[in-house]
Specification:
By secondary structure, the chain is an alpha+beta fold. The protein has a single domain (3-153), classed as Immunoglobulins (Immunoglobulin-like, Sandwich). It has one helix at residues 3-26, and strands spanning 42-43, 48-51, 57-64, 72-81, 86-95, 103-109, 119-133, 136-153. The protein is globular and about 40 Å long. The two termini are 22 Å apart.
Length: 154
């Protein structure tokens, strides 16, 4: 996926997430689409990621989903967990194909300089579809996974 498509999908997901947040404050909870992932659908995160000398982080894993009416993206974030808070940094997005087969995903991103270093980080990957609901694209969550990952230099 080229950088232009990633920026477009990222902007679309951001707009949809913002719309969903606005709607949750203005509408009853039943108006916001809720979804529990089917056991058939999943996203995994590999136990090891890479961090380059310039701070670029690469995360990967697998996913499987079936049936979508809008664009689907595997997004990922990474952060260090402390006793007082967790700060997460977005690590890219990959367009997903929901054809029932297992696929690999790999996301790359460069968070703020010095924000992540080699060692253990908490990673979250989410398989999210944008579905039109009442004329607005709202997020529809197919699957998510959160786990500790070891970032290695390289």
């Amino acid at each position: 996926m080229n950088a232009s498509v990633r920026r477009t999908l990222g902007a679309t997901l951001g707009a949809a997430a913002g719309a969903a947040l606005l709607l949750t404050g203005a509408a009853p909870a039943s108006a916001v689409p809720q979804r529990v992932a089917d056991s058939f659908e999943y996203v995994t995160v590999d136990p090891t990621g890479r961090i380059a000398a310039d701070g670029t982080v690469t995360l990967s894993g697998t996913y499987r989903c079936l049936g979508s009416s809008g664009p689907v993206v595997v997004s990922s974030s990474a952060g260090r967990v402390s006793e007082t808070m967790t700060v997460r940094y977005g690590i890219g997005g990959t367009q997903a194909v929901c054809d029932g087969a297992e696929h690999r995903w790999e996301n790359t991103g460069r968070p703020s300089p010095g924000s992540l270093q080699p060692g253990t980080v908490r990673v979250q990957a989410t398989l999210t579809e944008l579905r039109a609901q009442g004329g607005l694209p709202l997020p529809y969550f197919h699957a998510a996974q959160e786990r500790d990952v070891t970032l290695v230099q390289g």
